[in-house]
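go over whats below:
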Amino acid sequence: MSDTVQQPVTSHPELGVLPLARTAIDRGCERRIQPGWLDGLRADPETRYLLMIGGRARVLDGELVLLQGTQVPAGGTEIYLGSDGSTEIVLHSFAEAPASADGAAGTAATHPEQWLGLRDVAAGLGARDAGLFVEAVAIANWNHTMNFCPGCGGKLDLRDSGWVKHCPAEDLEHFPRTDPAVIVAITDEDDRLLLGANKAWGGTRFSTLAGFVEPGESLESAVIREVAEESGVIVHNPRYMGSQPWPFPRSLMLGFTATAVGTELLPDGVEIIDLRWFTREQLAAEVRSGAIAVPSGASIASALIEHWFGGVLPEPERLEN
């Protein structure tokens, strides 16, 4: 077994360690490419498996449930996740519930409250389990959707313990894809924060502006372009604050702050249907009253908003019956 483990990063950008950026796992990139690596792990009774069904894993007492090989149902896709320093861990993933729901997989039907998605539980997990879960969701999303060669349409073979797919017809290898996206906390000269309401959210949930980086574009240029497209606001001085994976299905969110040149707002009407400048007092009052909602939990948007706010936003007040 491996006796090495990835050491925690000791310095961070201003946002600090974000919930989905924590890890205490050595991914073993040099080990997973060895022929027969997964076969050897299957034969080792000390190997542990993270069973995931439809992107959800079993969580008990704030920890991921890891299984012995004899507890894992037949079928599914096996992918090497890494080592925590004492135990080798393999993902056993199903895109949907297997036809036979016996044993460990059967708990998804009998105890659904114990099967949680990454967004539900990430902030409450320890570094090892947070790192395992985000890695598992990201690599499973790719494996379950990348089944055929984009060039010839032929069936792809799984290689390198689940991290490479090979096209035998074209002798080409295909690797997991990550899509970079910028997300920006924009302030004006009075230190007000700009938040927008996405059409998909119904108009009452406000967040920082975000968008994907285009081919041949720097992160800073993407910040300026996306903000202008969605809000009509011109910004300068983009400043990197931190990043974390967002595997829904395969994004890497790169957090920035930027300063607005002007304050006139023009929502694009396609994605963003409302835009507002908030002082700290206004934002706190609106959230407390329940007039608007803002991101919370594991999202980098929440971290950017609370970094500007200077702490945790108040909870919405509960109405008395």
